[in-house]
Each structure stands twice: as C-alpha cells, then as structure tokens.
Amino acid sequence: MKLTRRAFASGGAAFAAAASLPNRSFGQSAPRVRRSINALIKEKSPIIESYRRAVDVMMNRDVTDKTSWWFLANMHDVPEQEQAQHKSLQSYWSQCPHKNYFFLSWHRAYLHFFERIVRKASGDPDFSLPYWGYEDPLQASLPTAFLPDDDELPKKPDDEAPPIMKRRNPLARAKRLLHVERRWIGLGDVAREVKATLALDHFATGDELEAQNAFGGMRTKDPLTPGATGGVEGAPHNLVHKTIGLQGDMGSPETAARDPVFWLHHANVDRLWVKWTDPARGRLPPLDDDVWMNTKFRFVDEDGQDRVLTAAEILDNQFDLGYRYDDEPQRPQKLDLKGPAVAIVPGGPPGGALARGRPPGAASAPVVVARSPQVRLSQRESRIALAAPVGSAQPQGRLAVLPQRLRVVLRNVIASDRTPPYDVFLVLDGASAAPVRVGALDLFGGAGHLGHGQGGRPDVEVIAFEASDALAQLQSAPGFAMDRVRVSIVRRAFQSAVGGEFLPQDPDPPRIGSIELLRS
Ligand code: C2O
User: Fold this and answer.
1) Closest residue CA from atom 3 of ligand 1
2) What DSSP letter does each residue of 312-325 carry, written as one string?
3) Closest to 470 (Cα-Cα) out of 407, 383, 386
4) What digits encode the pLDDT tens for the residues 296-318?
5) Quick one: DSSP state of residue 487?
6) CA-CA distance, 515 to 99, in Å (whole number)?
7) Any ligand 1 atom below 6 A from CB of 96
8) Most CB within 10 Å of its CB: which of 154, 159, 440, 484?
9) Could you tell me the pLDDT band of residue 251, with boundaries at 50, 70 and 90?
10) For atom 1 of ligand 1, which residue has the closest CA?
11) Rounded to the nearest 5 degrees, what angle is found at the Cα of 248, between the Cα atoms of 39 and 61?
12) Is the peptide bond before 359 cis (omega within 30 degrees of 0)?
C-alpha cells in the first residue's frame, strides 16, 4: 500500500463515458449467466478452458499494455517499487476502495471490464466470469481448476518447487501456500459469516462503531479514504483473502488480483450483494447519497480505451451490465429501486436492525465500562484483562444487568499487511466455561496505515464487535462474575486434511492501543 495515494479523480475530459455498455432494454437479449465454478468443473465446461486461455494470453502481455494481466491487477493495488518503475501509469493504479462503502460498487465495475477483457482475449464470445460459492461447505477450499499439476508441487512445505510462471495451468500461476494448493486447509466456517452478513439490514453507516453492521460499509468522502471495515467486506471477503492468501498473493491488496482466483472470489462477493438487495424490505444501496452514486471510477475496456463508470450506472446487474448469476432469476424488468428509503444508518445504532448478535432495541448512549492498556499480540493467545476507567461512575458490575448491548472495541489498531488471521473471544478467567467468539480479525491490507495526509502519523483504526450474545452466554456459565470477563485474541489455526493443524507464524504481531467494553 502506498504512503501517498493521490486524491480520487473527479472526472476529467480524457475519460469518455462508458458508451458501449450493453444496455439491455425490455424484450432484448437475455443477460449472460455467471455460473458456479463447481458446476463448471463437474461438467468440464469449455468456460474453464476459455479462462485458462485468456489468463495465459494476458499474462504474456507487457505490464504497459492496458489489457495485460499485470496492468489490471495493478489497478487494484501494486507494490510500491513496481509502481515507481511506471510513473506514467500511476493514475490508473492502486484504486481499490477498502474500509468504506465504495467497496461493492467499485469492485463490481472492475469485474465488469475485466470480464470483457477476458472474453476478448479468450476468443470465446460466450465467456462469463464464474463465481466461487464458498458458502457451500463442500466448496470451502481452493477450486480444483486452480491447482497446479501434481509434479509441479513440492511434496513437503520446505522442498523446492518449480517456478510458478512455468506451471502448465495458467490458473495456478500465483503465489500460494503449499497447504492451500494441496487443499490441506480451507476456509473453515465461512458459511456462518455469509449467513450473518446476509442478515444485515442496512447498506451504509457514518459511524465506525457500526461499520460491521452495515452490509456495504462505512461512508467516507471518496474511495481512497478508509473508514472502518464493513459487513460483507470483513467477512466473508477479508477472511477469504487472508486464508487463501496465507503467505501468498491473495493475502495483500497489492498482489491479490494477480491470483486468477481473486476474480471468482469477487464474483461471489458481487453475487452476495445481488442476493442481499431487496427493495421491498428497504435493502437498497444509498440512492440518495450523491457521493456514493456519482463518484467516477476509471477503468479500461477490452480495446484499451479509457472508461468511466459510476455506481448509479451499475445498480442493476441485469439491465445495466447484462449479466446475472445462475441462482438469480432473470427479471423481466429493471430493478425497481423505489423501496422504503432507509438505506443509510444514521450516526447512532440502526433502529431495529438485525445486527450481528445485537439485541434489538438497546440504543442508549454508549458508555465505556472497562478498558485495557496497550496490547501487543505476541503470543498465540493474548488474554486481556480490562478495568473500569478511573473515576468511572459506571462500575463494571453494572454490566451484569441485561438486556443491554455490549460491544468489544479495539482502538488504534496497527497491523502489518502480512498479519495472519486472528479471532476475538470473550472468556471467563479461572472458570471452565468455553470462550465465546465475537468475531474474526482478518486484517486485509493491515491496519492503521501511515500516511493518508495525516503528516506521517498512523491512522486511527477502530474495529468494533457485537458481544451482547457472548456476554449472555457467559453469564449463564458457572462461576460468572463480571470482573472475571477477559477479551481473548487468538491467532487462528487451520485444521489440516492430513491431520493436525497449521498455525501461521506472526513475526510482526498487531498492536492495539486499547480494548474497551462498550455498553449501550
Ligand atoms: Cu479490493 Cu478482495 O479486494
């Protein structure tokens, strides 16, 4: 991630409007269908061969070719040294919006142009990007179409392997951990995350403490300004990156789009957005938000021509962009987006929202009931004691009175881009009750980056988890006392299909300025 990211383009005459979008009006040709990779593998579909062919062609193009694999991946993000070698291309690169509500719309438009470029490079006019439906537990490890041939893999993690770019399967030409490529480890319970994120009712929020409760994420002034990680972005999205990308390309925004499976992961995220959308229930993007609707995203099409798209132009995947997913019914009409307009969560908690683990109705002003000093996650498990803030009129004991909303808030989180996954739990110290998980810490892109116009001081990054259910569970455990409640942060271990578990190392563990229990 760069230390300085240029201000986001607000247009520019050099960028033509996307005049050749396949605008489909009623009665015209049916939308193309993006299908499940699993189904395509099973039927040995020619679509996979087309993708392989296109990836090979595009990987052989020079990075300065705007339809090359490398140029497109760099539009997402690029390591600094490589960016420095191509100053004239900088205005196209490092555009991926993360930790804000542009995440879904930008990636949808990015995929659209990628799909067009692949279609042309493959020579297959019927090509549609497949998606990876990993919420099906049978598909929770790397799809087999992306694996190298067996003789191209080392037998053991430390053996030397043949060069990645020489692999026969173009879809395997990416840096990945052996455990991932041998499918020894998978995504774990990603279905749980998908279910939780699809239960969220609001698209956007202006409150960083509510970011995980907003499906589309947190409002910021432009795509390159981070706020806090939103609902679908955190999990499943970041979780998939951090697992498939353990010590590999997918684990960092700077290299993620170099892995051919990146695009199928994002097709699935986009499919979840389609699934989530339901105007009748007010599940809409923020249509009345001019910044979200009209910020211009800059791309390149299959002819290498500059293109501009806004969120307003891509809201309807079927009619605006001409595709649907194989489990999405074809609509005879454009999406009717005039639902009850409650897409934006105001500053405070979303009234009646079905938040991740939050009891409905609790909405009083938040109070810090306990706080920890600074923590560094240098052990596999850090068990953190918290104390009532000095001079606090809210003794911790008060927390035992439910129903109340409790959140665990991590403040001033600083983590490197390569931080492996962690999970956050509430636990009773000295009691036998099992720890109760409150959420995942999959820090894609790290946390608390330097820069962003803050005079070299780290950004202040806040991550808030719902913990009401977790507290309620602990309260029914024998030996419960509020002053025995600890926050436990545990480096995630992965069950291995060949026995035992794989625990990633963390040479540069995250620092957390303080952890708070927040009651409201
Ligand atoms: Cu912009 Cu999955 O990343």
Assistant:
1) 253
2) GGSS-HHHHS-EEE
3) 407
4) 999 999 999 999 999 999 999 99
5) E
6) 20
7) yes
8) 440
9) very high
10) 96
11) 75
12) no
Residue with tokens 């170099």: 258
Number of alpha helices (DSSP H) and beta strands (DSSP E) in the chain: 13, 18
Band of the pLDDT at 216, cuts 50, 70, 90? very high
User: Does residue 145 surpass a pLDDT of 70?
Assistant: yes
Whole-prediction pTM: 0.91
3-state secondary structure of 299: strand
Q: Candidates 2.60.120, 1.10.12, 2.30.30, 2.60.40; correct CATH number of 364-519? A: 2.60.120
Task: Name, in order, each residue with C-beta under 8 angstroms of 293's C-beta and a sequence gap of 6 or more.
Answer: 286, 287, 310, 311, 312
Quote the tokens at residue 185: 């480890």
Task: Name the residue with tokens 């695009």.
Answer: 263
Task: Determine the Cα–Cα distance for residues 380 and 386; give it in Å rounded to an integer.
Answer: 19
- Residue 89 CA to ligand 1 center (angstroms) comes to 20
CA distance 299 to 75: 8
Residue 118: which residues within 8 A CB-CB, separation 6 or more?
50, 51, 54, 55, 58, 127, 129
Q: Is the CB of 108 under 6 A from ligand 1?
A: no
* Three-state DSSP class for residue 73: helix
Name the pairing type of β-strands 406-414 and 511-519: antiparallel
What are the angstrom distances between the C-alpha of 114 and each of 205, 264, 298? 29, 11, 13
| CATH number for the segment(s) 3-325 | 1.10.1280.10
Q: In sequence order, what DSSP letters do the residues of 404-453 get, joined into one string?
A: --EEEEEEEEEB-TTPPPEEEEEEETTS-PPPEEEEEE--TT-BS-S-TT
Cβ–ligand 1 contact at 76 (below 6 Å): yes
